[in-house]
Write a structure and sequence with these properties.
Elements lengths: L8 H21 L4 H6 L10 H13 L4 E5 L5 H13 L2 E6 L2 H13 L6 E5 L2 H7 L6 E4 L6 H8 L8 E4 L9 H12 L4 E6 L5 E6 L8
Parallel strand pairs: 1-2, 1-4, 2-3, 4-5
Antiparallel strand pairs: 5-7, 6-7
Helix pairs in contact: 3-4, 6-7, 7-8
This protein binds S-adenosylmethionine.
The site of S-adenosylmethionine has 19 residues, from helix 4 and strand 2.
Length: 218
């Protein structure tokens, strides 16, 4: 029995499907050599997990986010939480992934959950799609392949409004991502108007807020 995470039974049923698939994937991958796992990574959910999902949802609702950007749809696990937030705060989610078949699966799951109307899926390279965009993003989840973190961050940064929030996943685990996450931390530290903090939840989350020194929010 999975702990209830959603008040809406349809969304809870979809969450439970994800949890069951995740357990199967854990069993399958526990003995897989690292190289084989890397070759097969597109098969797996690789989700942020329920704790981070709940955190993201609360953050987006608290921020009264109008536009939520997700970089890395995968099969839709984190999208489910973000879409539930969008439903509750009158916002919308733009979710980007380069793999169309993953987004097709995510779309079907969101439809089952009754949350598809809150999500616009965009398929393509995250850096290029963000750079082409003239939108501002109130809450951003950065969760694509880690070698793209700095490029994505640089594309997102000018599109974060004052008070806008960036959540970057996998800042602690897996260990193999640490060179990339260290580079992201350095890129964040180089901006004078960002406040940032590493949170020990899930695989390690960096919470970064655009908050200028002369902001009247301080
Ligand atoms: C860790 S998974 C995302 C997991 C998802 N956020 C969740 O919690 O369920 C990373 C995703 O980034 C996508 N990705 C990798 N490179 C990309 C790129 N250049 N542009 C867009 N998406 C990309 C992969 O296809 C993969 O689905």
């Amino acid at each position: 029995m999975t702990d209830p995470q959603f008040t809406n039974p349809a969304a809870q049923a979809v969450f439970e499907q994800y949890q069951a698939r995740l357990q199967q994937e854990r069993d399958l991958t526990s003995d897989l050599p690292r190289a084989s796992f890397g070759d097969r990574r597109d098969e797996f959910l690789l989700p942020v997990g329920a704790e981070v999902g709940n955190f993201l949802r609360a953050l987006a609702i608290g921020r009264e986010a109008r536009t939520i950007l997700e970089l890395g749809t995968s099969y839709g696990f984190s999208t489910l939480f973000l879409a539930d937030a969008a439903r509750q705060c009158g916002g919308r989610v733009i979710s980007i992934d380069s793999e169309a078949h993953k987004q097709d699966h995510a779309r079907a799951m969101l439809e089952q959950a009754g949350l598809a109307e809150y999500v616009e899926f965009r398929c393509g390279d995250a850096v290029a799609l963000v750079e082409q965009s003239d939108e501002q993003f109130d809450v951003v989840l950065l969760d694509i392949w880690k070698n793209l973190y700095v490029a994505c961050f640089e594309a997102v940064y000018p599109r974060l409004p004052e008070g806008g929030v960036l959540v970057s996943d996998n800042m602690i685990y897996p260990e193999g991502a640490r060179e990339a996450t260290r580079a992201l931390r350095q890129a964040i530290a180089a901006k004078p108007d960002l406040q940032t903090s590493l949170l020990m939840m899930g695989s390690g989350v960096e919470l970064t807020v655009k908050w200028s020194p002369d902001s009247d929010m301080l």
